[in-house]
Design a protein that fits this description.
single chain; alpha/beta; six-stranded mixed sheet; 14 strands; 30% helix
Length: 318
């Protein structure tokens, strides 16, 4: 893929500028193009690809293999994502890690069934864990310890309720141990450590194998995400699915659908500054871009802007 020129429109303005062609930016562009008559342009810093953390590669001399360097699976309980994949007609297949023969935790090899991050089974007595757990934590898998800690923090979240109701519940939840601070302002690590011992947390962290999942992110978002994934976590990877041709296919289909509706994607464009602007037809946004290939700068006026960018990238803007 190559950049499609500099930011522009016929009269110097567009309706919506979307910056960032990852999952959120692509989806927003696709929806706007399909459901409105707005003039939309989508900008991406990468000069070669869209998709952000949806990144599938095909290893050399392995043409049938799809190696995921980002998103790798989804659960049917993620209704919005599952519905989008179905609407786009993308082929899926079961995602399974149950073929693992073993796992190493603290330099000790344990049998595959002990790998709580993959099979979510109880650790067998024949494979004692190399963690100094409390008596009430022993014999529990990593997901069980995680779920117990989450529901202890917000008991109402344990109920079998629809996603929308769960979201409303969590958005109003508070953390008594933090003086009634809203749940969305509390770090997930802090929340878990009130219930788990240091060793139990380390066991959960090590066995899940995904560092960001147990880091100190928004507790509300973490609880909502894990609750939706709970059936798959408790039932094993058989309930997870993946895209047969890789997650990059989802990005490509959203991009194609956006362009088919007249949308324009501009690759290799770095957003340097974003500020409010006031013109004859009302308030808007002034965005300054740099074409990474030529170094040329251009200023675009949009009525509205969506900055679908990582937090650190937003912090670096002028």
């Amino acid at each position: 893929m190559k950049s499609r020129g500099n930011a522009h429109s016929r009269n110097g303005d567009i309706d919506v500028a979307i910056v960032g062609a990852g999952a959120s930016g692509l989806y927003a562009a696709w929806r706007l193009a399909r459901e409105t008559k707005l003039r939309v342009q989508l900008f991406e810093l990468d000069a070669m690809r869209v998709g952000g953390r949806m990144y599938t590669t095909i290893p050399e001399n392995m043409p049938t293999m799809r190696a995921e360097l980002g998103a790798m699976r989804f659960s049917p309980t993620q209704e919005l994502l599952a519905g989008l994949i179905q609407e786009l007609g993308l082929a899926t297949m079961p995602f399974s890690g149950n073929e693992l023969l073993g796992v190493y935790l603290r330099a000790r090899r344990l049998p595959g069934e002990a790998c709580a991050a993959r099979t979510y089974a109880h650790v067998p007595s024949s494979a004692p864990l190399p963690y100094n757990l409390r008596d009430d934590e022993k014999g529990k898998s990593a997901p069980e310890l995680l779920v117990n800690a989450m529901f202890q923090a917000v008991p109402g979240a344990a109920a079998d309720i629809p996603p929308r109701q769960l979201f409303d519940l969590l958005s109003k939840a508070e953390v008594p141990a933090e003086g009634g601070r809203p749940l969305h302002e509390s770090g997930f690590w802090n929340l878990l450590m009130r219930s788990l011992s240091d060793e139990a947390y380390q066991f959960v962290f090590d066995s899940f194998g995904i560092e960001s999942a147990l880091s100190n992110w928004n507790s509300m978002a973490a609880l909502f995400t894990f609750k939706l994934l709970l059936p798959a976590l408790q039932g094993g990877d058989k309930q997870f699915r993946t895209l047969a041709d890789g997650f990059s296919q989802l990005a490509h289909e959203l991009k194609r659908g956006f362009e088919d509706e007249g949308g324009e994607v501009l690759l290799g464009h770095r957003l340097l500054a974003c500020a409010r602007s006031y013109r004859g037809d009302g308030p808007g946004v002034e965005l300054t871009f740099q074409n990474e290939a030529t170094g040329e700068r251009s200023v675009l006026h949009a009525h509205q802007a969506i900055l679908a960018m990582p937090a650190r990238a937003l912090e670096l803007l002028d």
